Every structure is written in C-alpha cells, then in structure tokens.
Amino acid sequence: MIFLFIGIAAAVFAADAAIKSRVEKSGSLPQSVWKGRILLQKYHNKGAMLNLLEKRQKLVAALSVLLTLFVLAVFVLSLGQRGNNLLRTGLALLLGGAFNNTYDRLKRRYVVDYISFQVKWKWFANIVFNLSDFCILAGAMICCLTAEGIRGA
Length: 153
Fold this sequence. Notes:
By secondary structure, the protein is mainly alpha-helical. About 65% of the residues lie in helices and about 10% in strands. It has helices at about 1-25, 55-80, 85-105, 120-125, 130-150; strands at about 30-35, 40-45, 110-115. It starts with a helix and ends with a helix.
C-alpha cells in the first residue's frame, strides 16, 4: 500500500514534468481549447503563487525547498501509521506537485505554467496554472478535510 502513495506522488511529478517539457518546446501556443473556455499558453512564473516575490527568487526557492521537505517529513511519518489512507493520498498529491514546482525553481529558475480559464472574472482569467498547482490545491483540501474529520471524531 505504501507504494501506491509513493506512486501517486511520482505520477504527479512525471506527468507535469512531461507537460512542462512539451510546453517549453511548443511554438504553437497560445491555443484556445474546449470551446474557448481554456487557454493553453506558456508562462514563466519567477516568484511564488501569482508571481509573489518575483524579485526575490532565491528566497522563494529556499522557502519552496523547506516547505517541500516539511511535507515530505509528514508524508514519511504518515506511512508508518495504520489507516488514514485519505490523508496519505492528499499528502502524495501535495508532495508530487510541490516536488515538481520546486524542481522547476531550482533547475529553470522559474515555474512553467500553461493553463488559464477564460471566465468573466478578469482577475481569475489572468492567473496561469499547471498540473502541480491543481494537485497541491486538491492535496491540501484533502488533508484539511481529513484533519477536520480526525478532530471531529
């Protein structure tokens, strides 16, 4: 069972790495898909979320490494416990995404983002995401719901 959760993290990392590699090599972006609701594009985020601290790339990279190591430690500790597979699933999603974005920050000096949603809210339409971002969000939500369920029990 442990290998399932490690596999989830590895699959997230590998899938997003492959997509980012293809995006970096693509000359045909931007592209509108799904009846114009999604825009595929190449965006280099040099900061944290929403380009926060883009002028402090070394600080962002250091924080990214520290937070990823923290999630890794919690993940490893969770593997030694019985039950709570939902928590481990959330941590695996979070970890796969965190590893991938941290890898980008260390290797490329920016995170490759490539998908945005064409909605009426301009502030949201201007945000560009990647698969790792979605997995980090989903993993964090699962972890929070699981932790809330543990406290409520």
